[in-house]
Amino acid sequence: MDADASAEERASIDAYLGPPQDGWDGGAREGDTYRVGRSGQAARDQRELLIEALHVLQGDVGWISPGGMNYVCRRLSVPPADAFGVASFYAMFATKERPKTAVHVCDDLACRVLGAKSLLAELEAAVGPEGTAASDGSWTWHRSPCLGMCEQAPAILAQRAGRPDVAVGGATAADVVAVAAEGSTMTSKGAVTAPQTRDTTDRADLRLLRRVGHVDPASIDDYRANGGYEGLHRALEIGPEATIAEVKDAKLMGRGGAAFPTGVKWEAVATQPAHPHYYVCNADESEPGTFKDRLIMELDPFAVVESLTIAGVTTGCAKGYIYIRGEYPLATERLAGALGEARRHGLLGTDIMGRGAVFDIELRRGAGAYICGEETALLNSIEGKRGEPRNKPPFPVQRGLFGKPTGINNVETLINVLEVLRIGGAAYAAIGSEGSTGPRLFCLSGQVARPGVYEVEHGATLGEVIELAGGPTNGIKAVLLGGAAGGFVGPDRLDVRLTFEDARAGGYTLGSGVVMVLGEDTDLVDLILRIARFFRDESCGQCVPCRVGTVRQEEAIHRMVAGRTVGSVHDELVLLDDIAKVMRDASICGLGQTAASAVQSAIATFGLFGSGGVA
Amino acid sequence: MFGAGGGTSSYEEVEHTDLVLLWGSNARAAHPIFFHHVLKGIHNGAKMIDVDPRRTETAEWADIWLGIDVGSDIGLSNTIAREIIANDLQHHAFIEHATTGFEEYKASVSDWTLERGAQVTGVPAEVIQEVAHAYATAPRAMICWTLGITEHHNAVENVLSLINLSLLTGHVGVYGSGVNPLRGQNNVQGGGDMGAIPNKLPGFQDIETDHEARARFEAAWGVPLDPKYGWTLTQQFEAMERGDITAVYVIGENPASSEADKQHTVHLLENLDCLIVQDMFMTKTAELAEVVFPASNSAFETEGTVTNSERRVQRCRAALTPPGNAKDDVWIINQVARRLKDDWIPLEPQQAWDELRTLSPMHGGMSWERLEELGGLQWPCPDENHPGTPILHTRLWEFDDPETQGTKAPFSVVIDDPPVDLLDQEFPLRLTTGRRLDSYNTGVQTGGYTSPLRRGESLDISPEDARTYGVSEGDVVAVSSRRGTVRAPVHLDPALRPGLVFMTFHFPDEVDTNVLTIEATDPRSGTAEFKATAVRIDKVDAAVGAE
Prior knowledge:
The complex is a heterodimer of chains A (615) and B (547).
Chain A: H1 7-17, E1 36-37, H2 40-44, H3 50-61, H4 66-76, H5 80-87, E2 101-106, H6 109-113, H7 116-126, E3 139-144, E4 156-160, E5 166-168, H8 173-180, H9 220-225, H10 230-249, H11 262-270, E6 277-283, H12 292-299, H13 301-314, E7 317-324, H14 329-344, E8 349-352, E9 357-365, H15 375-382, E10 406-410, H16 411-423, H17 425-429, E11 439-446, E12 452-457, H18 462-468, E13 478-481, E14 487-489, H19 500-506, E15 514-518, H20 524-538, H21 544-562, H22 569-586, H23 590-594, H24 597-606
Parallel strand pairs in A: 2-3, 6-7, 6-10, 7-9, 11-15
Antiparallel strand pairs in A: 2-4, 4-5, 8-9, 11-12, 13-14, 13-15
Helix pairs in contact in A: 1-3, 1-4, 3-4, 10-11, 10-13, 10-16, 12-13, 12-14, 13-14, 13-16, 20-21, 21-22
Chain B: H1 11-14, E1 19-23, H2 27-30, H3 32-43, E2 47-51, E3 64-66, H4 73-86, H5 92-98, E4 99-100, H6 102-109, H7 114-121, H8 125-137, E5 141-145, H9 147-150, H10 155-169, E6 178-181, H11 188-193, E7 200-201, E8 205-206, H12 211-221, H13 233-242, E9 247-251, H14 255-258, H15 262-270, E10 274-279, H16 284-287, E11 291-294, E12 304-307, E13 312-316, H17 329-340, H18 349-359, H19 368-374, E14 377-378, H20 402-405, E15 409-410, E16 429-434, E17 459-461, H21 463-469, E18 476-480, E19 485-492, E20 500-504, E21 533-539, H22 540-543
Parallel strand pairs in B: 1-2, 1-5, 2-3, 4-15, 5-6, 9-10, 10-11, 16-20, 17-19
Antiparallel strand pairs in B: 7-8, 12-13, 13-14, 16-21, 17-20, 18-19, 18-21
Helix pairs in contact in B: 4-7, 4-8, 4-10, 7-8
């Protein structure tokens, strides 16, 4: 309880927060310290820096020691018990000492069907079970949920104390050893895995991906030479009301899963009487099988910065946040670079484009929590808290970040705004279908010839998208559509159209644009067990239906797999159905509400466990 | 305040004020329930300023903490007043229409420059200035204090100095502003209200000067009342020493553990002809008694009322039958009365209360039924149609109606008067005392329960002094004052500065802190200067010979 920070920990935190002010926040006890103390609101307002401060400790020291935590708490005026609750919530924070390097090996859906299992087996044989230190004690390995590199499966992510984190695709056991080695020169490479962009004839049709692979992501000049910042220029030219009108005319729907009309959201934020307003870019792309936002952030980062700036200045915000998942080191680095460049060029700050517009963006990293993709959990995480969703209403547009009106869109939604402003709302609305306007990004993974991010206009069929990616490599047993929170469809349904309205009518979901092709030899039971484990791990534990239901769901599947059912298989299936209903009806957020959907769809579609499901 | 012995505000108001000035009050530990209301205020955006020699757990919530020298409160308040007046931030209309004595007061603080204030209190001048401006300019501001103000030889002056600030700025008699002593028990207020103080009849009616009230009591009780103030607790002990008091009846107090200069107190109690103690526990005092009446628990074994710090009278009810031979206090007193007067008719609690309502105008409208129905009422509540009075002294703002306004509130000239027990080379450390969250007063009631926070008595000392004296955590030291010596283990507490040490009085069986404290008392309130003792510490090896 009274542990002190080491000199190294202290130096790391001081480098991030600046030196302590007085003896009460960690400085020397002298002079006025004995007579004056300032805590109060000003000190507690620093709470929002907690997670970044924990990142600093984790990154520099390799774990969050009690002493280090105590020092952070003193600096930020956060009770240590509270801070421990935060640190232990996030998977990327180690609150127990571990080797300097931890390699996270993805064993989630896409990697699982493409080599992760043999990689894990090799590591177990060579090093020992997960968490075992390698013989020299310098590194260890862990299983990980989806790292968002499904098109480069199998993927690994190395957290290395004192060195940058590295994400590696197409990883082998040798890569795991190499990335952990002292003096390793491996870096995260941004592979251009949007095959359409290589095709010079098709490129003219690309709207969202048109710069991907063709501009230097570090160069603002390159970005501007390719149409960059024309959208912001136009938005400032026509003003907020006309900008919102364009977005409404475009009928742009949110791409995060809920398909909420973006223009309506912008208008709601802009007209809220309470101030300040905030705009947040949800870049916590964590749905298993999803990697489109990562690709945009790595290869066209200025597009994210520009479109968030447009959202901010249009809705009366002076400050915006990009909340990026912690497992994306390269995207983080490139966005940070883009933010710096934008500031240097007067495209963020107090006089944007010389027109007096005020807006700046802070980049915040998540730390390994799927739930933080849920918008209110994300807001809590920015505030330095456990990523537990809030009850709605009030909705974020009413009371969001720090209790103030807050707009929040994901990366893909935001960059669509650039296209809306480029061609005009009406022209944009003419793309796609009546109820689903504009282009859409899909994440093709699994057993397809050319996995990657694909852009199609709304209305393409599932089969067409799979063909775009070169077709299946091993036949099709099933397609996981929309991610772990989505569902499985069979090969008989490749003609479904990928629009919001068709999905609603047909009882499937586009979710985050996941199209994971599963070949003939796929073990579907293994996949739904992985999905059940995923939700059990990722449930934040705040509300009972999900906390208990995700555990019960996994247990029931295990019992059926092991042939040790309680009652008949049918009884277990009835139980699963009950659990699914309770979670769907009584959980406060989308995680619990969808935690059973993939499992249920697999059982119903494929008659798993020798049953046609529960009628 | 201003004659009425109670806080001017309701608890609820602190949730909606703009500034809370906690002065000599570690409310987070000592008044945790009230502090919940403070926290709500803080969450609603109120600023909190804390004046306390120690940077206590309360100070950890403060926007500004002022670590003044023990006993320099009047220096600080006079300096704040001068700074307010020098910057013309005082409330002119309120001063003109609702107060008296401003010019004398202004003259009396005129030489309390920021520099002098800084020199006397130890707090930097610019911080005092900041606090003065914050208090004067806050739309609503509340001063709350506890024993850090009252356990001094000049307690009344300390309180008056804070009232002066509220009058100067008009921060009284309006919602969200006021001056409030925090009480340490659920019924300290009620004890005073019911006449358990030497100079007042029930309902704060002066026994010497309020002839009408006295006549009312005489008529009701059928006996003449001596129009003379009684003795304060301290004066009673002096009377015991002189031999003027030879018999004492103690109800629910434990002076053998809680009084300053405890050896002397025990000696006096032992020499009485007769000591009667009525208590739930076999206290140290009870052990000295000729007769002990086992009493019941007022919280859940008796019928009656209690009155809290916001002057709210609440019903309490018997949920349990007292164990063994323990009896309700009212029953015991009735029995004693019967032995003293053959025709005494025992009074039930509700009858006693209804009698009070006829004698104390401020309780007149508080029938048990109304107390039950409304969840308590705040005095004054003169008749059954009166809603009670959440805020005292709103009348002062009736500038145009002298009758409603009544007596104007007087400023008081208060002179800085440092603690009696002076520091010198022999006793260089300032010991102050207080309470912790997990324990209550002498531990009679809390000692029976465990708490993960409780670590027993210690001499809390700054890390710097620990280095100076070559002691570390847990080392036992001898702590000596001009009156005695106790031994206690050392606890390092960064909330203390060099020269300032702290003890509680929760564990008299382990460490008898009040052996050290001085008996200097305020002549007007009778409170002792528990907060300021001069001590020295010696490592035990070296101190053995000196004991």
